[in-house]
Amino acid sequence: MARPDTDFEELLDVAKLKADIEAIATIHAGKPADMRAALLPLLRTVNTDGRNKARELLEATKGGGILCAERISWLQDQLIVAIHDLVDAHVYPQAAGATAIAAVGGYGRATLAPGSDIDLLFLLPSSSTDAMRKSVEFLLYVLWDLGFKVGHATRTVEECIRLSREDMTIRTAILETRFICGKQSLAEELDHRFDREIVHNSGPDFIAAKLAERDMRHQKAGDTRYLVEPNVKEGKGGLRDIQTLFWIAKYHYGVRDAAALVKRGVLSRAELRLFEKAEDFLWAVRCHMHFLTGKAEERLSFDIQREVAAAIGYNARPGLSAVERFMKHYFLVTKDVGDLTRILCAALEEEQAKPAPGLTGVISRFRYRTRKIPGSSEFVEDRGRIALTDPDVFRRDPVSLIRFFHVADLAGLEYHPDALKQVNRGLRLIDNDLRENEEANRLFLSILTSPRTPGMTLRRMNEAGVLGRFIPEFGKIVALMQFSMYHHYTVDEHLIRAVDALSDIDKGKFGDEHPLINKLMPTIEDRTALYVAVLLHDIAKGRQEDHSIAGARVARKLCPRFGLNPKQTELVVWLIDQHLLMSMTAQTRDLNDRKTITDFAERVQSMERLKALLILTVCDIRAVGPGVWNGWKGQLLRTLYYETELLLSGGFSESSRKERAKASEEALVEALENGWTAKDRKLYGRMHYQPYLLSVPLDDQIRHAEFIRDTDKAGKALATMVRTDSFRAITEITVLAPDHPRLLSIIAGACAAAGSNIADAQIFTTNDGRALDTILVSREFTDDADELRRAGTIGRMIEDVLSGKKRLPEVIASRAKSKKRNKTFSVHPSVTISNALSNKFTVIEVECLDRVGLLAEITAVLSDLSLDIKSAHITTFGEKVIDTFYVTDIVGMKITNENRQASITARLKPVMNDQDDELRSRMPSGIIAPEPAPSEGSTPDLGPGNAPRLKV
């Protein structure tokens, strides 16, 4: 049984606990049920006090995570021993001394997290009695009554041995068996037989199975240790990986602790310290997580990262918050675990373990001869992996540290773990001389621009520590996370994934998703500069200054070192400085406003820059995380590209705007042929203003005309129409209703109540005083039938709210109640009002923390202020939203008065801070009375002050 430390031992007087239990047994002698009931309060108090003390000592930094886990394990041992002794002496004395209780799994290593299951093995003799089994049941019921989650098995030694042969999970559990109490000879028999009958000569089988199990677990977790909400127990580089290392070492080398691996020559003393520090840190994180949440929480989510960081003692530093510093340390520790895995695998190779038939992976390749690699005298091929000809390769020529990865890329080889161990131990050889070495930089550039798998090679260089040493600026962002819901990966992993995306584009893999860039990539004049820009675009994250500006400065220093000429350097510097320009313009600006296009074109200036920036932007968005890229963003970027291309090539003419609108109107009238009377063609073909005619495709104009005519024939005052678009990953909900200052606000509120995310809004007014608004919501289902049903539900919600059948404040409140309010993140709210971004409209940009109903409330405020919303552009970056509104006053003029601008800001701020309860209570129930429906051709009475919006 494990022994406690002095600080913890003082808490629990074991002798007194036994005396108290004995007193309870005496009082309730012969009454097991009463005895059990009386026992529970005492044991609960002991357990609660003990765990509170363990938490107190952990928070007071009296020992780290492992010591905390050992304290809880020791406490658990005492409770089990106390219950067992009671059962043997007073409940089932006829079974006394006949069974053994052993801890298995993590508990078997004498470590236990606060919320973890208790894994127990009850060992019975070969001829067991009913009393023995009942004694086990009694003990289990007491543990369950105390609230413990107990994983248990009741077996004989023979059953354990038989099942170990058949099931690798059971074999692993028994490998960790630790005797707690009872008949010790049974536990010893199991231990001896397990070593002799199971472990002997089966090392390769076990190792291969554990490594395959680890790989499958990693795949389920995203196959990266750099997820910003990692699983501390099961994730890559987490505690389970450390446990796997120890299982393998214990099984193959027969060691009882990691320190014995130093004597065996498997680990150096420095590597042992790394092992111990990594394990202690991960245990500390896990224990804090369990204490904070009160359960076995293994996912280090945003909700608890701040609290864990504070509990461990991290403080903010310039450019990095406390939680970001903590998470960077976390990811560096998980990287250390990966290094230790490679070192152990290399040692196993040297041991020449016997390969298991039919298995692939590390073990199956142990006994194969090496082969020469053409053109290389330093490296050889060992069963599909690059290996060193001798351990001194890197010391003789440090450039070989870069050449190693270059040759592996050229030859398409995996990496021998022993070679990676030598790489790791040779990192100190990467100094300024190597960084400035022309050959080393040429090799690196060749790796980066490789037509094969540059992302994979860069990732291996990063894992080995080479990339961060060779490019110190990159080393600063290794394992750096950004505390936001938008970014799924650490900065270094994001950059490497961006290179992955560029490589896939280069190979033409995204033809269906990105038809434009698939066509543009072969025309790129400078492929090398583009790859460098993609790798470096976020290299200055984590600094106090703007990362685009700082990144451009870093690039200006690095590009000549890499061997880029002045023209290439200037392109890379410009791309990094402006790498957010195209994304933000496309998502937050009105692309139908000519000023948007002219301003963007003035900053881009050339087609070469435009093409490179488009490709960089796509790579950047795709590398943020799963689900961040969608077809709607692609459509916006394509529209911006095509409009800018026209302007840069001289094809954009303001003078033709009126003529183009007239031609569009005539085309619509001509297209309304089958089933249309001459009167209807004239009425419905000429009811739109210039913005509509210039921005809406003819097919959609025809569809809208039919929709409006059908609505009028049905005598409806309002109607909705839905359409899915799988390519753009959006669903269109078109609303026809009497125009009203609050119309967009009510529609947005209805969409929020239906649980839909608005991506954009196209707002138009017909010349008979009605609004034709198309709301674009993010697609949720891949199947069109499912998405149409969802869209129909949203459409009905909009109609019910507009008609007054449902009250907007109530439906939004109901939705907000069902959706957990995000209190983890804070976004400083800001309002920007500009008259320079459009020739005709004032642009109001709102940035704040997202929540249910926000858009509805913001647009309600703008309506209260008598502002006419021409278009709205809704962009969400995780927890942050940036909403942009193009507005005029009630007579179609810009908002130029400074006092009025200040008033707009003052009215918006309470809504952005979620404080405007008065506004919420005043939100209208609808704009159309449910009955009676207006007759065909009539204009509904909107009431005093509700005149139609004036469109210019």
Uncertain segments are 352-367, 930-952
Sheet with the most strands?
Answer: 8 strands, antiparallel
Strand content: 5-15%
Biggest sheet: strand arrangement: 9-10-12-11-15-16-14-13
Number of strands: 16
Number of domains: 6
Q: Helical segment tally?
A: 42
- In the CATH hierarchy, what is the class of the largest domain? Alpha Beta
What gyration radius follows from the Cα positions, in whole Å? 34 Å
Multimeric organization: single chain
CATH architecture of the largest domain: 2-Layer Sandwich
The first-to-last residue Cα distance is 84 Å
Question: What would the average pLDDT be, to the nearest integer?
Answer: 86
The fold-level CATH name of the largest domain is Beta Polymerase, domain 2
Name the overall outline.
globular
Helix content: 40-55%
- The structural class is alpha+beta
Q: For the record, what is the CATH homologous superfamily label of the largest domain?
A: Beta Polymerase, domain 2
Secondary structure topology:
Blueprint: H1 6-9, H2 14-27, H3 32-59, H4 65-91, E1 100-103, H5 105-108, E2 118-124, H6 130-145, E3 150-156, H7 157-166, H8 168-175, E4 178-182, H9 184-199, H10 203-220, H11 239-253, H12 260-263, H13 269-293, H14 302-312, H15 322-351, E5 370-372, E6 379-382, E7 385-388, H16 393-396, H17 400-411, E8 414-415, H18 417-425, H19 432-435, H20 438-448, H21 454-463, H22 466-470, H23 472-477, H24 491-506, H25 515-520, H26 527-536, H27 547-562, H28 566-577, H29 581-588, H30 594-604, H31 607-622, H32 631-648, H33 657-671, H34 678-685, H35 690-695, H36 698-713, E9 719-725, E10 730-738, H37 743-753, E11 758-765, E12 770-778, H38 784-802, H39 808-818, E13 830-834, E14 842-849, H40 854-864, E15 868-877, E16 880-888, H41 898-912, H42 917-922
Parallel strand pairs: 2-3, 7-8
Antiparallel strand pairs: 1-2, 1-4, 5-6, 6-7, 9-10, 10-12, 11-12, 11-15, 13-14, 14-16, 15-16
Helix pairs in contact: 2-3, 2-4, 3-4, 4-6, 4-13, 7-8, 7-9, 10-11, 11-15, 13-14, 13-15, 14-15, 15-18, 17-20, 17-21, 21-24, 24-26, 24-31, 26-28, 27-28, 29-32, 30-32, 31-32, 33-34, 37-38, 37-39, 37-40, 40-41
